[in-house]
Amino acid sequence: MGEPEFFNEEWLAAQQAFWRAWSEKVEQAGSGSVDSGDPWEALLDQWWQRLTPAAPALMKELLGKTVSQAKQLFQLAELFAQNRPGDEGFDWQAAIQETFGDLRGIIAGMTGTMNPIPEDMLSESGIEQSSAYLQRLFAFPGLGLGHRSQAQQRELFSRLMAYQKARMAYEHFIVDLGQRAVTGLQEKVADIESQGRQIESARMLYDLWVEVSESVYAEEVMTPEYVKLYGELINSQMAVKVQMRSMLDDAFTLLGMPTTRDFRALEQRAYDDRKAIRALQAEMALSKQVSPKRAVATPPKKKTVRKKSAKRKDD
Amino acid sequence: MSPIDIKPEKLAEEVADYSHKLQAGVERLFNVGEVESGVSPREVIYQEDKLTLYRYLPVPPVEEPVNKAPLLIVYALVNRPYMTDIQEDRSTIKSLLAAGQTVYLIDWGYPDSTDRLLTLDDYVNGYIDRCVDQVCQRHGVDRLNLLGICQGGALSLCYTALHQDKIRNLITMVTPVDFQTPDNMLSAWVQHLDVDLLVDAQGNIPGEFLNWTFLALKPFSLGGQKYVHLLDSLDDDERAKNFMRMEKWIFDSPDQAGETFRQFIKQFYQQNALINDAVDLGGQRVRLKQITCPVLNIYGEQDHLVPPAASKALKGRTATRDYTEVAFPGGHIGVYVSGKAQALIPPTIGDWLDQR
Known about the structure:
The complex is a heterodimer. By secondary structure, chain A is mainly alpha-helical. Chain A has three domains: 1-90; 91-257, no CATH class; 258-315. Chain A has helices at residues 9-29, 39-51, 57-82, 92-100, 104-112, 124-137, 147-194, 202-220, 224-255, 260-314. In chain A, helix 3 packs antiparallel against helix 4 (92-100), helix 4 crosses helix 7 (147-194) and helix 7 (147-194) runs antiparallel to helix 9 (224-255). Chain B is α/β, with parallel strands linked by helices. Chain B has a single domain (38-205, 255-354), classed as Alpha/Beta hydrolase fold, catalytic domain (Rossmann fold, 3-Layer(aba) Sandwich), CATH 3.40.50. Chain B has 13 helices and twelve strands. In chain B, strands 1-2-6-3-7-8-11-12 form an eight-stranded mixed sheet, with helices on both faces. A two-stranded antiparallel sheet of chain B has the order 4-5. Chain B starts with 7 loop residues before the first helix and ends with a helix. The mean pLDDT of chain B is 91.
């Protein structure tokens, strides 16, 4: 391990001391008035930053997710420790929604793996700012020598707009889904209350949230509405990509540089050659199998022929 | 009484406990070292392009396989086949060897752009067929036993239908047959997808895209909760290592050859062609009724990737008079890695094969 000083009991002891003090403070102050200032989080961040450079990639990713989830979990729990559902000014459903209900990371992950343009350029505000200007710019018909590239740019813009629209529609669906999950959680919490039980730990609350959200999600993403939105999201993204590639290929051609078209042609040739080689190999293997049989079968035939011809000669 | 009552002192305790586990978990994970994949000894029998055909060596006390008929495993093109041999005490391969089987496996490798144009025909009538020939020649037999896993099961069904004379027995594990059952999330998602556009734009389909798609099936559990619960399962070195192995496998997704992906999504998912005898491989029509050999179909009762109904649809679709179905109480991955599966699945396969 690269940073052994971070794995001693001091770090842990410091945290425990803080939480004891914080807990006492909350008790004294009553609900809703203590701001912890996230010292646990700050300590965790500090520790994590020192640790990260020494961690192997797989572990870095894994623990990164663990640390980030833990931070969210305890941020939320802290709110509940200071407030009770029903307290004035405490919107617990909104708090949960804000902490865990944001599925946009998942969307960004899904589309981001193949995104032709940076994610932040696709935000609602990003497009709104540029769309009016671009719409004016591309309102003119393509003219003169540059008409081809103008048409290409217009097409790219139109595809980008379609992608953005699909993305927004998808995001709205996901946000609505998060709200439905909160409603589901409310019902679940009411169930628990009616059974005379209580949620007493951050983990219990979190697990319940996951259970409800997963169930709502599983139902919603099987609807025709979602299927259409998902299809449009991916299709519009691919349409942007194809157009961008075509334009880049044209530019590369002008520069005398290899293009995707060239690579695809080479791939086709490699594939055809591979098939031809395989066919030849199969033919050779077959002839090898057949040859020994021929070797056995041929001599008697030849002998017969010789005898006959010899006979003829004798005749 | 408030339904949510998280007391500050309880929270403090919880955070401290979590911190303690985090510290211990990190220490443990740092000591895991290299995470090896595949544990059973094996030898390379045949190689072609990215493909490698392995034979797994018998493990003592089994010196020689009881069942001389070789068993060829065809894994999915998605993910890596070392899942079947992931660790010493969770290895379907090892358990099959222990059950006296002669085990071979096709590792598809990692396709790159030179493989973009490979078709399903190339995979089924090309690669699989040549591997079958290699194994048969080696053993001096005309037929072997075929075990297809997940998508590999669908490919194995196609292969058996087209080359029945080379297959003695067919086993399908967590294999989709009806690709449009109402509970199939993946299937629903691709129905509105323009696969031609996707493949034309991407060439090969990035493994990372598939990773995200699989995560999106259960985003709350797989993208978040799993990591919160992770620290509870890191209480010893071996469990930490096992977790890392599994994590490595989950995200080790090869890119998919573009043409194969196009054909698979269109024919299998969008047209549901396998169940309708309409799969076309290089001009050859795949008809499940062409399958006459004994069939063992194993599915997971809690499989969220291949719902049970998708697998059970095989019943009555082939022409075999010897069809057996085994329901495993677990999910898509559990069927080869859970302790329960190790005790049930490989011995069942072994017995079933030995009787035939």
